[in-house]
């Protein structure tokens, strides 16, 4: 599909605005989000403190709690990348850098640079950093073993792919992002190795084969589908609200802890609507534009397992292509 998916989202936005002009009142930042950021830093830092003398506690909580907190940290970084917290983008960037500290790896500023291209060129193999590259897709294919390995090492694959596809522009804010993250990382490592273990496990597992990372195989892949779903449609003859797009939502309870990041179709339609108003956007537009039966019902290991074991799903699905096994 390439950047055609982005064009469909733009056309959907225009059509929804025309049909429901009141949605324009939802556009804009919500400064209350800053308190969510403060809470995340306090929670992660507090837990790290309590496990500072116990490797066992660090490992157990690093497996269970830390990945979900770091998932929430990433959703906050995502929100500030769209400047949806404060009226001044600089404040959003500073909030992102501050929250990023407990994630250890400095990603806030790079994400801000590259995420805009994901929206503008959705599904484009060359410009969308969320889409695996040609060699990556060909190497992994639809092998269950290789898809498993790909998920396990995603924490390293994703940033490498991002750097290879798009340039990184250094600035004072980028330097600040690195100084804050690395300063926090080495401080924790100096005072408590168990605390460091707890934090580093959260960072790695939130981007690896862990239920907290189920979003990776949900946002732009349909891991449950029927023959009807895979049938090609003539876009010219299909109403816009029924057009097949490689963007999927999730309306479950985990959204409450992760800034409604599951309202993914809504977000790609209206990237300048704060997370607090996405449910209202869906309520206004209704089932016509955001049908429940097209969304994921859950978000966890079941979806990861389906992605891995289904031989008809491959990395090509990220780019909206038909997997070889599906076209046979």
Q: What average pLDDT do the residues reach?
A: 91
Radius of gyration: 20 Å
Number of self-contained structural domains:
1
Question: Low-confidence segments, ≥5 residues, pLDDT <50?
Answer: none
Secondary-structure element series: HHHHHHHHHHHHHHHH
Shape: globular
* Count of runs of 4 or more consecutive helical residues: 16
Major sheet characteristics: none
Compact description:
55% of the residues lie in helices and 0% in strands.
Name its key features.
328 residues; mainly alpha; globular
Structure description:
The protein has 16 helices and no strands. By secondary structure, it is mainly alpha-helical. The chain has one domain. α2 packs antiparallel against α4, α2 runs parallel beside α5 and α5 packs parallel to α10. The protein is globular.
Topology (SSEs and partners):
Blueprint: H1 4-19, H2 33-50, H3 55-64, H4 66-81, H5 89-100, H6 108-120, H7 134-140, H8 144-152, H9 154-165, H10 172-191, H11 193-205, H12 227-230, H13 264-269, H14 278-289, H15 301-309, H16 324-327
Helix pairs in contact: 2-4, 2-5, 2-11, 3-11, 4-5, 4-6, 4-11, 5-10, 10-11
């Amino acid at each position: 599909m390439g950047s055609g998916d982005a064009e469909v989202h733009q056309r959907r936005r225009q059509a929804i605005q025309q049909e429901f002009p009141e949605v324009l009142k939802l556009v804009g930042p919500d400064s209350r989000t800053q308190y969510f950021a403060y809470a995340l830093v306090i929670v992660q830092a507090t837990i790290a403190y309590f496990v500072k003398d116990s490797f066992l506690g660090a490992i157990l909580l690093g497996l269970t709690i830390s990945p979900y907190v770091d998932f929430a940290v990433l959703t906050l970084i995502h929100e500030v990348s769209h400047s949806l917290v404060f009226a001044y983008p600089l404040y959003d960037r500073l909030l992102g850098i501050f929250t990023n500290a407990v994630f250890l790896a400095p990603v806030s500023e790079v994400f801000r640079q590259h995420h805009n291209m994901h929206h503008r060129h959705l599904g484009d193999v060359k410009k969308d950093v969320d889409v695996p590259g040609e060699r990556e897709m060909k190497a992994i294919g639809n092998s269950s073993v290789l898809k498993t390995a790909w998920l396990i090492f995603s924490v390293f694959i994703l940033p490498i792919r991002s750097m290879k596809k798009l340039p990184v522009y250094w600035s004072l804010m980028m330097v600040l992002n690195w100084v804050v993250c690395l300063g926090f990382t080495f401080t924790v490592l100096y005072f408590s190795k168990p605390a460091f273990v707890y934090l580093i496990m959260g960072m790695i597992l939130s981007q690896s084969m862990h239920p907290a990372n189920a979003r990776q195989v949900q946002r732009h892949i349909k891991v449950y589908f029927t023959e009807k779903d895979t049938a090609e449609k003539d876009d010219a003859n299909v109403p816009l609200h029924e057009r097949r797009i490689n963007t999927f939502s999730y309306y479950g309870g985990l959204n409450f802890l992760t800034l409604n990041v599951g309202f993914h179709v809504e977000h790609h339609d209206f990237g300048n609507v704060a997370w607090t108003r996405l449910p209202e956007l869906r309520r206004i537009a209704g089932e016509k534009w955001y049908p429940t039966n097209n969304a994921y019902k859950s978000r966890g290991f079941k979806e990861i397992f389906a992605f891995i074991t289904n031989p008809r799903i491959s990395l090509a699905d990220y780019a909206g292509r038909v997997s070889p096994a599906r076209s046979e």
